[in-house]
Each structure stands twice: as structure tokens, then as C-alpha cells.
Amino acid sequence: MINRDDAPQPLGARAQSKERNRQKILESAMTLFRERGFEAATLRDIARGAGLSTGALFANFADKNEIFLTVVEDENSRVIRLMRDAYDESLGLVDRLHKQLMRGYDAAQANARLILSAFVMRWSANQTSLTEISRLSDLVRVTLLDTLKAAKARKEIPDDARIDCAAEILEDLCFANLRRAFHASDDGDFDVRHLADTLSVQIGLVIAGLKTA
Questions:
Q1: Considering the domain 12-61 in this protein, what is its CATH number?
Q2: What CA–CA distance (Å, rounded) separates 72 from 174?
Q3: pLDDT (average), residues 11-32
Q4: For residue 201, is pLDDT > 60?
Q5: What ranges do the domains of the chain cover?
Q6: Which residues contact 107 (CB under 8 A, 6 or more apart)?
Q7: How far apart are CA 189 and CA 181, in angstroms?
Q8: Which terminus of the chain has a smaller tally of CB atoms within 10 A, N or C?
């Protein structure tokens, strides 16, 4: 039986209004960051896109960095969840990692500019913000490292294989491939087949190195 004191309490009218405004701001910011990148998206434009005043914006967020971090964290959580859901032990290790990374690319394609602004460009001089972005980037590496740990437990790679280094290489490749695919595109649509073929070779080389190192 649920204790009545532990049950979620409905938000008051003011809190509900504040939460609606917060979501409007994040939706507007996501659109503008996706279209323009971090620098070109202004707080005034974000507020206008949300149908709110800049005062209402500052009632919810301290500055553009905080808005950006919140948007990126939400997007990163979505992509990581899909990558983890794509884990498939019925596939060989190379194909298993390939499926996870391609699922991430498929999910991230529409928001490539946002992701590149966050993880590739040095968009902020605020060390706290940069540290937080590094933490979010680490989640990609941890997801891939978990797959490699499971592969080691299944004896698919040697017990002494440096899977920590392999996960770092795969993380770097993940963002490098996204950058190349985005810059090679005129309209934001990736050449998915080329990306998939390249990624397969890259993962194969990393896993081959693990098995022979």
C-alpha cells in the first residue's frame, strides 16, 4: 500500500505555470540551437520563440549556458538510452558495437549541430559548464565500455585486453564521424551508408587490436 505522505503531490497552479514555461523555453532553445548553434542563438530569440518575456526566461534559468546544458543533457540521455537498448548479444562483437553506435547516429542526426556545439567546439569559458559537458560525453564511453566488459566476460576478447583504451578510441571516433558526416552534408542529411561502412571498418580495427595487443 502506498503511504499517502509518499504519493506525488499535484503541483500548484503557479508551479504548473512555471513548469510549462520551462518546457516552452527548452523547446524553443532546442530548435534554435539545432538551427544556429550555441553562439548565434540569443536569449531574446529563445524567449520570443517560447512566447515569453526575457524576464520569464530568467525566472527559470540563470543564463544561456544553463539552458544549453539542460537541452544537451536531455538529448544526450535520449541517445544513450537508445544505444543501450540496441545492445544485442546475438550479434558478433563488431556488429554489436556497430548497431549501438549506428542507433546513436540515427537518433542524433536531426540534432547534429547541437551535439557538435556541445561536445566538439569550445563553446564556453565557464569551467563548470565544460566539466559538465565532459561528464555527458563520458556516458558514451561508459556505454561502449559496458559492452566491452560483457564481451570480456563472454571470452570474446582476452582477459588482459585494454578495453578502457578501446572505449576511449571508440568514443573519439563516435564524435569525429559525426563531425565529418555533418560537414560533408549540404542539408543535414548524412550519407548513412558511407557512415555505416566506415564505422564497421573502424570498429573492426579496434577489436582486432584488442585481440592481438
A1: 1.10.10.60
A2: 17
A3: 89
A4: yes
A5: 12-61, 81-212
A6: 78, 79, 82, 83
A7: 9
A8: N
Amino acid in the structure at residue 38: F
Kindly state the cell numbers that stand for 181.
558526416
For the stretch 149-161, pLDDT in tens is 999 999 999 999 9
Q: Is residue 9 helix, strand or coil?
A: coil
Residue 124 has pLDDT above 60, yes or no: yes
Rounded to 10°, the helix 64-85/127-153 angle is: 10
Exposed / middle / buried, residue 82 (Cβ in 10 Å: 0-12, 13-18, 19+): middle
pLDDT at 88: 98
Mean pLDDT across the chain, nearest whole number? Answer: 88
pLDDT tens-digit series, residues 164-176: 999 999 999 999 9
In the numeric block, which cell numbers belong to residue 119? 561536445
Entry pTM: 0.82
Reduced to 3 states (helix: H, G, I; strand: E, B; else coil), residue 57 is helix
Q: What is the DSSP letter of 8?
A: P
CATH T-level topology, domain 81-212: Tetracycline Repressor; domain 2 (1.10.357)
Q: How far apart are CA 87 and CA 102, in angstroms?
A: 11
Quick one: pLDDT at residue 127?
72
Share of the chain above pLDDT 70, in %: 90
Cell of 80: 544513450
Residue 122 in grid coordinates: 569550445
Which amino acid is it at 62?
Answer: A
